[in-house]
Amino acid sequence: MAGRGRSGDRIEPSFSGRPARDDDEFSLDADDRVVGNRSSPRRGSKPPPERPTPRRRREPRERESGGLFGFMRRVIYWCVVLFIWAGIGVAGLVLYYGSRMPSASTWAIPERPPNVKITAVDGSVIANRGATGGEALSLENMSPYIPEAVIAIEDRRFYSHFGVDPLGLGRAIVTNFTAGHMVQGGSTLTQQLAKNLFLSPERTLERKVQEVLLALWLEQKYTKDQILAMYLNRVFFGSNAYGVEAASRRYFNKSARDVNLGEAAVLAGLLKAPSRLSPARDADAANARAQLVLAAMREQGFITDSEVKTAMSQTPASAKSYWSGAGHYVADMVMDELPGLIGDVKEDVVVDTTIDKSLEKKAEQSLVDVLDKEGGKLDASQAALVSIDGTGAIRALVGGRDYAASQFNRAVKAKRQPGSSFKPFVYAAALEKGLTPFSVFNDAPIRIGDWTPENYEKKYNGEVTLATALAKSLNTVAAQLVMYDGPDQVIKLAHRLGIESELQPNASIALGTSEVSLMELTASYAAFMNGGYKATPHVIRRVTTAEGKVLYENTYDSPPRVLSEQIAAQMDTMMMGVIDNGTGKSAKIPGWQAAGKTGTTQNSRDALFVGFTSNLTTGVWFGNDDGKPMKKVTGGGLPAKAWKEFMIAAHKGLSPAPLFGNGQLIGDPNSGQPMAQAAPGDGQGGDGQAGSGQPMTAEAPPSTISGIISGVFGGNDNANRYPQAPVRQPSATSGNGPVPPADIAEGGGSGDENMIPPGDVGSPPTTSSVQPRRTTLLDLIMGK
């Protein structure tokens, strides 16, 4: 043990083996002085040499520096560091890509492309047109199964996340990593809406960052229901359908308001791959995906097990590859006409049409029934139908056999020869010039220039009245009437009644060789039905905005008179004979007066029947798109049968009403009643007898020299009767009198050099088809 040292000396540590105590340092010798709290060495003493202070020994820290616990601490530490740096990096990317976006103050939901809602007379929807193909619906107005199905399969935490779902994103990452490829997305419905509204579909980091920022903005600005409604009304469902309304009508032919559980599951399943899973493309894949949707809905508690079983039987087996239904021909027609009425469509509009949906379905069914039953064996593949009321309003329109197979509207856009269905215009022109239904002409072989018209049955009836000639559709009499009327007068009358197509002024116009559309031909017949007023065909009744502002309303309520009442009544009665005992017997409607005319073109390439009751005027066409001849199909065959089927269905439940004029021919020579006289200025007159107020008898056409001269070379006092009709300058030698029932030499008749018919109508005279040429009084007058 160390002894006390001198004053000022440090205490030496003990080396006795005892560890030095801390208080040993403060031990003092006897000579040391204590001044205050410290010792003072004595004067003159030398300080002892300093010795190092021993350091305390520390216990080993094995638990802190090694083992599993230490490893975990290091892992957690570096994870925190990496997380911080990743956060800094992400924040930097967000700031960078965010700075490349427009200012948030300028963000706004882009306007949804305008929709055109096309409705029938009862307000039901025929179709939707526009970039989206369907109107926007609120969540309250659509089937509740649709939002539930979409949430269940696409974003089950939609109502709880803030626009981005970290749990869903993590689950998608794990699932994709496990599968080795992309099988699940982590985007929320809000993110998908942001992408659809503002961004391109490209997959880049910049777009993903911007998508997240926009999703957060949407969540702050709109409610969840608003976001979901915007998403459902804009998302793509395949087959050019955007929004649930367009998709529902596209695949199920019904509104999204009426979609059932199974159909809602199909729609929700489309969102993963709209084109690949489309029911129109792969019904099995669509239904398989729908089962997954139903399972997800059951898991989320939206539906019960029993509802799942019910829905299994509700999923549609297939859908057509294109819109189906005749109403789409109407919708296309509306879209063609709409810009001319209101200009460019810049907002949602509602187009009220004149279409009766029940008649539309009946019209389509009547054509399909006849084609399915007899079309194959008779080589008839297509048909079209137009039905118009007395004002010109189109009540039904079918442009072809199947819209899904062909969208070409044969009722409106196709122009074909009408055949004998054009003859009523020839007969009406003859009545205007003074003839009557009982005027007699000779049905015999004739020749006009190089053209020899023949009757369909190649038989001749001798002297017949005009009423009989029209009922039997005698070509020879119609050709004589054109020479009597003059082709220009027939064309003027046809244009006046509603034919808009260009008509060729030649003799063969009597047999309908100039092409017209079925719609204009049918509308022209409506003037006979309504008592002589022009029936301008129209399908658009009114156009309004979604708020009800009227943009257009038609003005066809005051049509001009284009035919006198007397002639309209006479034509109605004459055309009744076509159905009662003529070529249109197949079109008889039990209990109703009906009138019409058959039409058949060369080699049965086209067959038509146009007829009317006091309620509707309907035209039907059968044929082939490539002009291939049918097997002896006439207007009195397939077209008349389809016309009858449709008209019976259209008149079911209605009380029969007579035609205009009640179907009576006043002046029948067999009845003893005088023929009604032509009133001054009624559009009649011509050969000096009917126009003079004297009764027309049922005798043959005048055979005197003055009668023939006035008939062949007489003037035309009706050229300006209807100034609204297209006017063509008449020839100076236009004939206005009856043509004698004999051969008409080249250069005879009206003297119009353009009257030579097309080469495919009739045939040049041959020794077998034309009787030996006779020298007639007309030949003498013409210097032959």
TrEMBL record:
Keywords noted in UniProt: Carboxypeptidase, Cell shape, Cell wall biogenesis/degradation, Glycosyltransferase, Hydrolase, Membrane, Multifunctional enzyme, Peptidoglycan synthesis, Protease, Transferase, Transmembrane, Transmembrane helix
One Pfam family linked to the record: Transgly
Biased composition (Gly residues): 682-691
Domain Glycosyl transferase family: 131-297
UniProt keyword annotation of Hydrolase present: yes
Chain positions covered by the region annotation Disordered: 1-63, 660-784
Compositional bias annotation for Basic and acidic residues: 1-12, 48-63
Transmembrane segments: 75-97
Family: In the C-terminal section; belongs to the transpeptidase family. In the N-terminal section; belongs to the glycosyltransferase 51 family.
Entry protein name: Penicillin-binding protein
